[in-house]
Amino acid sequence: MTGAMTQRTLAGLLAVPLLIALWVTAAIVPLPYVTYEPGITVNVLGDNGKRPIIEVAGHHAYPDRGGQLRMTTVYVSQPRPTGRNNLFELMHDWISRDDAVYPYDAVYQPQETVAQNKAEGKQEMTSSQDSATAAALAELGYHVTEAVVAGVAKGKPAAGHLQKSDVVVSVDGKPVDSADQLVAAVQRASPGRPLRFVISRHGRRTAVSVTPTSVGGQPRVGIQVATAPVRKLPVDVKVNLDPAIGGPSAGLMFSLGIYDTLTPGSLTGGKTIAGTGTVDAAGNVGPIGGIQQKIVGARDAGAKLFLVPPDNCAEALGAPNGDLRLVKATTMHDALQAVKTWVKNPSATLPSCKGAS
Question: For residue 21, with 0-12 CB atoms within 10 Å meaning exposed, 13-18 middle and 19 or more buried, which class applies?
């Protein structure tokens, strides 16, 4: 009996340091995962210190002080070597309904540094503000976009004639100011018949001839195109946001805030509205990361309406949104109309994420 007790006691004593070592290892050894947690929300109609977040010149401003348009953010653990999530931290966020855990490689590039991540986020934020301004001004009737060559395929008809970053002014004498118009102009062409492109390259206009070929029965010249803001917008808009906030996902909320600031009256009707989504110069709303955490942040900030990019709808439906209404926003125009309708009648039928897959 004494021998058995001694063996069990010895085994227990030997197990204690092993258990301690395992717990210490779990606490200090980083694992290849990234955590997402709800971040701050910012009312883009508010102030940053003594200056309005949305500041305009060249147009009368109509501040909306009664309501709020809140952009949403996510706290994402930083890339290596700063970001070091141990087992306990990951388990906490994995169990929480408000947080999420993703594989490291799904969020960061293998050699991405903290400095590179911040620089990229800053550049994306600046670009999103320009596109948001263009989208808002287009909604107000300004012509503020241009069709830009985003790439030229090797060995295709446009190679040697068009270059990346060329602005296409017209095709066969017909003006174009968006990617859609440029694509339509090429599709109207006849394969084998030269097309006359008037382009602006480094600020100088020139004409080039490109002969489309037939691909799948459709005329093609071998370029990728994009819609971009014109280089000089008719209204100067500055977004005075904390430089620590980066990324392109606030574009939709910026565009609504800019529109509200440039138009009389209150878009919000004194209510709190939140949302997320990239927006291009043509007003198309694109997907973002961390939708569920952004919904939680908006819910906790007291928002009652949340604008969701269409590509994020299926994931958004799994968020613990409480009484926060989720509305699908395919374009800036759609989002604007949904907000106006909801402000007048919160029970009105609006574009829904239900049925998304």
Answer: exposed
